[in-house]
Amino acid sequence: MTEPVELRGERVFLRPSTDDDVERIAGILATPEVARWWGSIDAEQVRSEMVGRFEDELTYAIVVDGEVVGLIQRWEESEPQYRHAGIDISIHPDWHGQGIGTDAVRTLARHLFDDLGHHRVTIDPAAHNAAAIACYRKVGFRDVGIMRQYERAPDGTWHDGLLMDLLREDLT
Fold it and tell me: pLDDT, tens digit, for every residue of 102-134?
């Protein structure tokens, strides 16, 4: 795995998350609009799972105008026969609807293709997360299919996930 780099989009600046980001990221994940998708994640869990470099995973802080407004994660499948990458993202609700998510996803996807040599990127939002799905489609992601009872929601019920993927030539 290559060393993490800082990435610039049209409006966003993506940099590897640090200990200084823990409280802000935990606060973002605790907002009701975000927690409904991610569940309960406290600062200690953020510190242990989202700060630093893990084997094939990395969490970036999404920074706009000097403020951490979200996080975006990448993971990589390094097995040569299946080599590809995946993305996950969360933005503070105050920044929803402003194109920040689209810019961040596009910026990270471009890095995964151009700098890290992946040929495919996947993302797997809840099938009923219309705003996220619309964001990913703007970047060029295509629906692959519904994964039934894919993920347990914070309330304990199972919900479907939508598997989406993006090939280099689809990136807008």
Answer: 999 999 999 999 999 999 999 999 999 999 999
153 within a domain of the structure (yes/no) = no
Neighbours of 171 (CB within 10 A): 17
The CATH number given to whatever domain includes residue 15 is 3.40.630.30
Residues paired with residue 53 on neighbouring β-strands, in sequence order: 58
Number of domains in the chain: 1
Domain interval for residue 98:
7-121
Length of the chain: 172
Q: Quote the pTM value.
A: 0.94
- The DSSP bridge partners found for residue 142 are 165
pLDDT digits (tens, 9 = 90+) for 47-66: 988 887 677 899 999 999 99
Q: How far apart are CA 145 and CA 164, in angstroms?
A: 7
